[in-house]
Amino acid sequence: MLLARVLDTKIVSIQRQGRIGPYVPCIGEEGAVVPSTFSLEKKDWLVTSYRELGAHLTRGISLDLILAQLFGNSNDLSKGRQMSNSWGSKLMNDVPTAAPIGAYLPVAVGVATAAKLRKEKVAVLAFLGDGATSSSDFHVALNIAGVNKAPIVFICRNNGWAISLPVSKQTASESIAIKAKSYGFEGLKVDGSDARAVYLASKAALEKARGGGGPTLIEALTYRAGPHSTADDPKRYRKDELSWEDKDPVRLLKESLIAKGLWDEESDAALSKEYNTSISESIARQELIGPLPARELIFQDVYSMVPWNLNEQAGEISEN
Ligand SMILES: Cc1ncc(C[n+]2csc(CCOP(=O)(O)OP(=O)(O)O)c2C)c(N)n1
Ligand SMILES: [Mg+2]
């Protein structure tokens, strides 16, 4: 969680200097995301939206690969073709997101159903935002997950906002968790700023999924401490309801570890410094990598037989 916090802060700073394109920060939501990924096993799958930086770090994506994706350089696993924040790795069963909200949720259920048909003891952990619950794909995914008793855990990061739309205008339902009931499986609500609560809830749900108990929807109440993205100005629509420091999951976890005698301020400061140094070194490495991937690459790796219209467009690109 601390690594995600330090890295996120540094990325926002290089974005403000114009060194990368738009970025979606995760500050404030680390507690709703990172703890659950500690219960993933190697053969499990992670399917994310765009605000789960810490989940990819826990899964094992290196700092260099995280930054290569943001610089869109030739080291990037998606060869610079994805929207920023779309991290993933085939080797790590980490599925990158699709930009249309909710579109990847049926894919996640497909992965879980395939694992079940193959009789593999595998679970899928899929993240979504509160706004994604209004998408038709949310219904499609949760409905068929229930029917198939798919081994999947959905974690909805309810940060109260879908860009500028508050959650009160998103749904009239008493909670997001309760929606699971209508799909025939369990839904529960946790405090997303309480790392331990998120860890325990997701560990139990993942074990249940692997053991054939079917899906779970976890609603993690969290707080989007930053703007929606670096292209957004929340001051235009948001009068802050609470001081977010009270909900800061990184601070709360640090304080609880210190109270238990398991951590101290000096070690915390030293760890932040160590992370800052390795992040700066990684930025320096990735920023220098060139040339950028060739434009023609956008036509590769999707179709085994490229349709004529794409071939025509590829020809036009190379002429210009
Ligand atoms: C189908 C679709 N509609 C609209 C958008 C534009 N859009 C990008 S992010 C976003 C808000 C999503 O909110 P939420 O699911 O709560 O996630 P959060 O950003 O809060 O993490 C919207 C509407 C989109 N990407 N896809
Ligand atoms: Mg939201």
Would you give an account of this structure?
It is a single chain. This protein is an alpha/beta fold and 320 residues long. It has a single domain (2-289), classed as Thiamin diphosphate (ThDP)-binding fold, Pyr/PP domains (Rossmann fold), CATH 3.40.50.970. 41% of the residues lie in helices and 11% in strands. The strands form two sheets. The chain has a six-stranded parallel β-sheet with strand order 2-1-3-4-8-7, sandwiched between helices. A two-stranded antiparallel ribbon has the order 5-6. Strand 7, helix 8 and strand 8 form a beta-alpha-beta unit. The model has no long low-confidence stretch (mean pLDDT 96). The protein binds thiamine diphosphate and magnesium ion. The site of magnesium ion (MG) has 6 residues, from strand 5.
Main features:
320 residues, alpha/beta, Rossmann fold, six-stranded parallel sheet, 8 strands, binds thiamine diphosphate, binds magnesium ion
